Amino acid sequence: MARLFIFGLGYTAGRFAQEMRGRGWQVDATGSAGNIDFADANAVSEALVAASHVLNSVPPSDGSDPVLDRYGAELGGKWLGYLSSTGVYGDTAGAWVDEASPTGGGRRSARAECDTRWLHKGARVFRLPGIYGPTRSAFERVESGKAHRIDLPGQVFSRVHVDDIVAGVVAAIERDAPEGAYNLSDDLPTSQNAVIEEACRLMGVAPPPLQAIEEANLSPMARGFYAENRRVANGKAKRVLGWEPRYPTYREGLAAIRALA
User: Fold this and answer.
1) What are the chain's domains?
2) Rounded CA gap, 19 and 41, in Å?
3) What whole-number distance in Å separates Cα of residue 123 and Cα of residue 78?
4) Domain of life, per the record (predicted)?
5) 128-140 pLDDT tens trace
6) For a tag on the chain, would you pick the N or C end, based on fewer CB atoms within 10 A?
7) Which residues, given as ranges, of the chain have pLDDT below 50?
């Protein structure tokens, strides 16, 4: 039986683990939903010895990568995957980025450094934009009253449905894809306002008022989100992985989530 080890069994990695178990894989993982304590070096080492494939979804901590710092020496000879962020590209004033675009110039400097370290380790690095899916989408923000429409003309973001991430990583494993970076994003970068408006339309409620960013009382993290503006190209993943997003735009993604309600 093929065995997979996941560092950090969170929202996205959890759905990936579910998919791989359905395909007959043995999956061990750290994290609150996992079966192994990250701090238990003996248990982690034993599971790593047995695993042929390793996926890391643990974000940087204190500016460094906790997985590479603690267990990097034990990852040799494994298929390696790393869930990174398109935030490594920084702000491009709305211009397109692909895997050849420079990294490290944005607010996600620690993420960019970890991204580079995993590339040097021989990983398939999956750079992800805003992730959404069941229980984690614009619908929850609208329902909780936390949805905003910010008056920033020309501001666009890319996003990806969680199940399209899973499909991309599965494709990379099945094709034994070359080491390197892959952007997994949908086909239609657009404003956050458009996403909120579509969610409200599907819910049959009025969208929140349009506000200046100063009026919205955003958290520092949210303000940082709006400080960057870029479009993420996914052509490499399509060519090399044979991957096509099941939800090519936010419209299909939101409609599918709403159908589950």
Assistant:
1) 78-260 (3.40.50.720)
2) 27
3) 9
4) Bacteria
5) 999 999 999 999 9
6) N
7) none
Alpha-carbon 254 to chain mean position? 17
Q: Please list, in sequence order, all residues whose beta carbon lies within 8 angstroms of the beta carbon of residue 106, skipping any fewer than 6 positions away.
A: 87, 88, 89, 90, 91, 112, 228
As beta bridge partners, residue 149 has 210
pTM confidence score = 0.97
Structure token digits, residue 31: 């994290």
pLDDT score of 216: 82
User: In sequence order, what DSSP letters do the residues of 67-125 get, joined into one string?
Assistant: HHHHHGGG-TTSEEEEEEEGGGG---TT-EE-TTS--S-SS-HHHHHHHHHHHHTT-EE
Closest CA to 162 of 10, 5, 6, 24: 10
Q: What is the DSSP secondary structure assignment for residue 157, as one 8-state letter?
A: B
What amino acid occupies position 206? A
